[in-house]
Amino acid sequence: MRIKFIMLGSFLLCTGVNVTAKPPEPELGKRWSVNYAYSDEFNQTSLDRTKWRDHFNTWKGRPPAKFVPSAVTLSDGFLQIKNHKLKKTDGPYTIGGGAIQSLNQGAYHGYYEARFKASRINMSTTFWLSNKNVPFEGENFLGESCSEDSWALELDIAEAVGGVIDAPFGALFRTGQQYNTHVWYRGCKPEDSELLVDPNSDNSVMNFYGRALRFSKGTNVAEGDGTGAPGNAKLANGKEVWQDFNTYAAWWKNENEVDFYLNDQFSGHISIDTTLSARPYNRPMQINMVTETYDWAKPYPTDEQLADNSINTSYYDWIRAYVYLDVTEQHPNSNNSNESAGDIFDERVEIKSVNQVLNTLEVDYVYESDIDIDADILLTKDSKTLTSKQLSLKAGYGHLRSSVQLKTAIDLDKTNIQIVLKSGDKTIAHSKTHEHTVNVK
Fold first, then answer.
1. Enzyme catalytic residues
2. Contacts for 21 with CB less than 8 Å, ≥ 6 apart
């Protein structure tokens, strides 16, 4: 395992690159495949300009912090955003933050995760998806139809603030995962933007700067409806977001549902607000990682805090995206090259269960591999190989069921079953041996 080191003032923090993190176990017949178009380990010395830009192309930032490209650097295997005081005030902007945005807006249904460590000041460290406004087709929630209205989507996977916010809900941003889903709407008439429905109702509509409505569901009481969902979105052992790296993830399942995960543990589910559209999350989005100030996250950082390199920087270890496929399906943004595949999955295979039907064994198993790989299912008895079955498996995290036959059912008694993963003649990994006994009555 490669080890990354960070100097934080007088402290040395080490972190392993290949920290176990992956999507939930796939259903039988399904596979998670890495979507390399939206994945990056940040092990280069500069930002990959084929994937990312170091600014937000439609937004300067929320005052008093603006996005400054020079705040974004890659060093020691981390993407770093160094928040700082601007040398020269720019209108309402006095603080420099940073933004990284994917060049493409093609991230769609799948699993998205990022491992990061928040700064310890009152600026956010975030990971989220969004898309641009497009014309809204058909009637809106008021029964109106016009050519001037438009809508956009936003999926906030994590908004972390390591500083102490002077608000009743401030500790939530410091001690766990805050997530939201937004459906933004700009209406047919100016008065639409003044509409404000009871935020405690099921059809809550929030006003945003008097310009757009948002239909929101999520844990973030500052920007969402604050209702949350069943799950555990709190860091273990009383930890805070600035103390260590944590993995924040979302499984964007379909047009109406998103599941959230914190350090590989389920942290909540959101059924997206359908006031505006029956199937709202129906368009691809882009990836965003930004640090910013919020008008509800005060006091703003002091000059002394912004100058303190031990607390002013947000660190991103990696970002990874996955698509959910059939086990034999190939995705165009997956990587078939064994030479350039990333070091993401633990190469492993595990037998989940073995069932006998007459003279056939049905072997249910999961596997992980960064590359396309071969597998042998071996049946042995008394140190002799009875039979074997060869398979070709696609790179990723898959769940399969394969069958192996012998001549008679009794031949399966006291057999040992093992699955071996191979790349060419080299054994990469193997399962534990499963001992099978035929029940004879």
1. 154, 159
2. 113, 115, 247, 249, 263, 264, 320
> DSSP string covering 61-112, please?
-STTEEE-GGGEEEETTEEEEE-EEEEEEETTEEEEEEEEEES---B-SEEE
Determine if the pTM surpasses 0.85.
yes
DSSP label at residue 376: E
CA distances for 87 relative to 39, 98, 124, 309, angstroms: 34, 15, 21, 16
List all residues 6 or more positions away from 312 whose beta carbon is below 8 Å from its beta carbon.
82, 83, 84, 119, 120, 121, 301, 305, 306
Give me the long-range contacts of 198-204 (CB less than 8 A, separation at least 24). 199/225, 203/141, 203/273, 203/275, 204/273
| DSSP states of 218-245 | ES-TTTS-----SS--B-GGG--TTTS-
Of 113, 32, 23, nearest to 397 (Cα)?
32
By CB neighbour count within 10 A (0-12 exposed, 13-18 middle, 19+ buried), where does 326 fall?
exposed
Helix (H, G, I), strand (E, B) or coil at 421: strand
Helix H or strand E encompassing 305: helix 303-306
CA torsion angle for 57, 60, 61, 65 (degrees, to 10)?
Answer: 140
The tens digit of pLDDT for each residue in 253-304 reads 999 999 999 999 999 999 999 999 999 999 999 999 999 999 999 999 999 9
Q: What is the pLDDT of residues 222-242, one digit of tens each?
A: 776 666 555 568 999 999 999
Round to whole Å and give the CA distance between 129 and 107: 8
- Nearest 5°: the CA angle 356, 359, 362 is 40
Q: Which amino acid is at 352?
A: K
Euclidean distance between CA atoms 289 and 181, whole angstroms: 16
